[in-house]
Amino acid sequence: MLSPLYSESAIADRVNDIADKLNAAYKGNELVHIVVTLSGAFIFAADLIRLLNFPIVVHFSGAAPYRGESEPQSDLRVNADEIPPSFGNRPVVLIEDILESGKTVKKLRQIVADRMASSIEVVALLKRQSSDYKADYFGFTLPKGLFVVGYGLDLDGRYREMKEIQTVGIIATQETRTMC
Fold first, then answer.
1. What SS3 class is residue 88?
2. Who contacts 161 (Cβ-Cβ below 8 Å, separation ≥6)?
């Protein structure tokens, strides 16, 4: 069962707010690298980068912490070959879909730092209230346990195309995962 959470217009307003803050922060930069962390962030990233008015280069990290379930995997696969071997002492902005445990961002942050970024900032569409990891910019806060789809976020590959974000009623146990 799907229930509306954030409307298309509410999302657009937050994306515009984040873009305005990034435009102010990176005004005058010669070049900023954008690293999109997960496939769930692609719509958010596309909408956001079209609003930026400073020079950028976009990279996709190939990180994959989910396998079609409502809970993150314990292991994280990152295709570091998708990220440049050097950022040439330029700023990097990591774009994340949902900041939960922070494992994805922490691992990518280390890779980016090792590849000579002058600074690293994190932009997340959604941030879990229970997350200890801080985003420099984020759109919305989610309570622990609330599973969402739409606006690029999926459940087993479905619902990414929805223009709004909706909650999914999920009952999760260690043995089964069923939609209610």
1. coil
2. none
**CA separation (Å) from 121 to 10, 65, 106?**
23, 20, 11
C-beta of residue 121 within 8 angstroms of C-beta of residue 50: no
Domain assignment present for 151:
no
Q: Mean per-residue pLDDT for 61-86? A: 66
* More confidently predicted of 65 and 41: 41
139-143, 161-165, 173-177: range with lowest mean pLDDT? 173-177
Whether 130 shows a pLDDT value over 50: the answer reads yes
Work out how many domains the chain is built from and give that number.
1
Domain housing 51: 7-141
pLDDT of residue 75 exceeding 60, the answer is no
Measured between alpha carbons, how far is 180 from 177 in angstroms, rounded to an integer? 10
Contacts of 136 (CB under 8 A, 6+ apart): 121, 122, 123
Rounded Cα distance, 104 and 158, in Å: 22
Rounded to a whole number, what is the largest CA-CA distance in the chain? 53
Three-state secondary-structure class, residue 62: coil
- Residue 116 CA to residue 144 CA, distance in Å, equals 34
pTM for this predicted structure: 0.86
